[in-house]
Write a sequence for this structure.
């Protein structure tokens, strides 16, 4: 007897989480695995943020919080959006959730009807397609490879829009590629969207502060899209607060209310202590954000220089996030002993087994032939991992 719903049976498991678990199992067995599969800063949460959480406990912020989040946090988010992004939102247009992941899912469940088309530029984060499927929407994938710096063109976007298009999911800086759209490129995409007023824009800005361009711009800045723009962000990447599970969305009031209504039925408000920590993150000094950004930039320069020396790899120079996304299809068809590389997934498993480096198959991001490496780890780990990868790769013939 099958007791599992078709809804769940139709979902794919998260490849990034699966690979991270696999590497943890190998380490537990005594194997020295360098995990470059997980998108998590290796820094600890800054002290002033942790102190705010401790103070919240002492002040008895330990009761049910409002579903949409404490007013003080939503005000702090509004101040952040005005200060850093030039966006005007009221606290009523903000919903705080259990990480940016929940708010992305909330946005889709609140706006997408069965059969609605959702445009996803790919390569894309592993959960986008699965979230659209959960909302009973139809993912429409628009592909841009390394030769385009993984960025779709206005012509591609225009061609993908149909009368059934409901929403565009947009992520810059990008996971998994690290690509960042320029202001000019965003303007050209916005001009396409202006011609299609039925299309909601869901801007995933979670990596906005981890960029090496002098300041990443968001598609949310175009006033012409304001009444159908949903901005999703959170504290996990910029403030090294992955375990605090705080994200938010900013949206026109009807959408924000719908998301709060949805959240009220299946999770309610998120951790009161974590909310007060997030408030301190947004309202306090931003020096910690810049310090971590500089460290990530140095690591980007290191891994990019080492990756270029691996024969057969085609790499772009990522301008944001903390991922490298090399094209590795040159090794499909190669062998080492009785191991044959038939797919990029085989290559990823080969690197795990022979080099003891955990990466993620590009197929998980709708881009077979690639792999993703996270450089959210020490420079020592990066150097050793790339040495191992190069040596193992050169053994393939």
């Amino acid at each position: 007897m099958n007791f599992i719903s078709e809804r769940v049976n139709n979902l794919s498991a998260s490849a990034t989480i699966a690979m991270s678990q696999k590497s943890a199992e190998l380490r537990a067995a005594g194997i020295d695995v360098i995990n470059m599969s997980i998108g998590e800063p290796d820094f600890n949460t800054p002290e002033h943020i942790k102190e705010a959480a401790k103070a919240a406990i002492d002040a008895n912020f330990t009761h049910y919080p409002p579903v949409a989040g404490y007013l003080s946090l939503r005000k702090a988010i509004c101040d952040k959006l005005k200060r850093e992004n030039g966006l005007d939102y009221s606290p009523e247009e903000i919903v705080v959730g259990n990480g940016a992941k929940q708010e992305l899912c909330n946005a889709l469940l609140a706006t997408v009807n069965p059969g609605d088309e959702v445009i996803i530029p790919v390569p894309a984060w592993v959960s986008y397609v699965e979230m659209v499927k959960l909302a009973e929407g139809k993912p429409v994938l628009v592909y841009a490879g390394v030769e385009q710096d993984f960025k779709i063109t206005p012509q591609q976007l225009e061609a993908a829009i149909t009368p059934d298009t409901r929403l565009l999911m947009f992520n810059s800086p990008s996971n998994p590629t690290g690509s960042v759209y320029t202001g000019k490129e965003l303007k050209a995409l916005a001009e396409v969207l202006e011609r299609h007023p039925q299309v909601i824009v869901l801007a995933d800005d979670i990596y906005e502060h981890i960029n090496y361009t002098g300041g990443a711009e968001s598609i949310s800045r175009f006033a012409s899209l304001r009444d159908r723009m949903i901005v999703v962000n959170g504290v996990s990447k910029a403030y090294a607060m992955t375990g605090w599970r705080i994200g938010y969305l900013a949206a026109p009031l009807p959408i924000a209310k719908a998301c709060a209504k949805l959240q009220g039925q299946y999770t309610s408000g998120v951790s009161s202590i974590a909310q007060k920590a997030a408030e301190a993150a947004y309202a306090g000094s931003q020096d910690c954000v810049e310090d971590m950004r500089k460290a990530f930039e140095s690591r980007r320069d290191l891994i990019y220089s080492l990756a270029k020396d691996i024969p057969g790899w085609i790499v772009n120079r990522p301008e944001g996030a903390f991922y490298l996304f090399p094209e590795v299809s040159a090794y499909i068809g190669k062998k080492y002993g009785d191991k044959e590389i038939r797919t990029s997934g085989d290559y990823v498993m080969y690197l795990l087994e022979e080099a003891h480096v955990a990466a993620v198959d590009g197929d998980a991001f709708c881009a077979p032939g690639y792999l993703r490496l996270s450089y959210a780890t020490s420079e020592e780990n990066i150097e050793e991992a790339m040495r191992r990868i190069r040596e193992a790769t050169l053994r393939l013939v």
About this structure: The two ends are 47 Å apart (CA to CA). The first strand starts at residue 34 and ends at 35. The chain is about 40% helix and 15% strand. The chain has two domains: 6-44+288-394, 65-285.
